[in-house]
């Protein structure tokens, strides 16, 4: 532990200029946040001409019914226009809040609020919680029209919206309540660790955040998600038998198999699994069941179980923890940097002893360009994992033969082909874009494009057949 703290201290020595040099950090944040936004707008402008294509890629021509491709292109074009406007609008709002002192005002407003409740400035954690929720609620208001438009105009126009105004409002209120119920204790412990551990907070904070994530793995499906959607045991039938059989053959620790009423809000479809290593739960959207055949849903689940087999969730967790560790390792220099707070307009008496939550928020803003690069790298890793999960589905027959025998592997030889059909069906029915600019995809997509996945599945199938000869 002493070695770790020694290395972290060396990092802070190299960053000591932050605590004394009069850098205009607010200008830096404004310039780089706008740079990122304009780059994202440029990517949209690269992608937009592809929505004018009049025919799908040759490999997909037979899969689109008359008029379906035109609907897909119209949906993609409308989403791109909305994304371009909303991205610039959100950045303009954020930039205005930053430029005109919204953040210093929010800190002072939080102080005034807790004073009215009988608490003084010595209750910094309480003021910090009030500060965060003032920021959260007030900064949400300008973007509510965008959420409303996206749901009741854009999604409605293209036939996907199932959300009623009542559900929209109640979902919003529920999300605010959940943010407070879970966010307030999280912030309190988060900040208490800083008070208790001082500059040696990094390992303790990492341990707390990992513990919190594991707790949320349990609480989200059992406490939070039921507030928004109904999870029911998947009914008996061919699909249930297929999935339970697949789980048994792979020794997947399936505890519950749920159907979720995703159609309550949207006709888009999905499937996923969650849980602790020894107890997993599979959730299938009712829309996926309605849109796909049981053998295709089984293939989609085979892909998902490939993620489990190759420990992709665990690997992503480790990568994210390394990312968080890097951020926390850099933070102490900014925690003790009055010039940073002063450059953002905080009064001298606040900047003199920077509140932890304020310093951390500003530090996150300063990292904006770095986080944009990190997101590209994370997408690249995610896409690699998606190809590996596809390979698992294609090679599933051989894996089951090796572990459970030929009888158990019967009917699995075409799993890759079934997965390909399922992907095509889901893309067509969800009006997903099939023409994608490579740079736009690299920045935005955590999954390979449909044509990339189909090509990969075809190559894997050919390799599998050659291996069997």
Plain-language structure description:
There is one protein chain. The protein is globular. 25% of the residues are buried. It has helices spanning 2-14, 25-47, 68-99, 102-116, 124-140, 144-157, 165-197, 202-224, 238-250, 286-291, 294-309, 312-335, 338-343, 348-351, 356-366, 368-394, 396-404, 415-429, 438-444, 450-468; strands at residues 231-233, 254-260, 271-276, 279-285. A four-stranded mixed beta sheet has the order 1-2-4-3, sandwiched between helices. It has 469 residues and is mainly alpha-helical. Residues 47-230 form the CAAX prenyl protease 1 N-terminal domain. InterPro entries: CAXX_Prtase_1, Peptidase_M48, Peptidase_M48_N. Residues 235-459 form the Peptidase M48 domain.
Summary of the model, kept short:
The chain is mainly alpha-helical and 469 residues long.
Coarse morphology: globular
Helix amount, in percent?
Answer: 55-70%
| Main sheet properties | 4 strands, mixed
Q: What is the domain total for the residues?
A: 1
The run of helices and strands is HHHHHHHHEHEEEHHHHHHHHHHH
> What is the SS-derived class?
mainly alpha
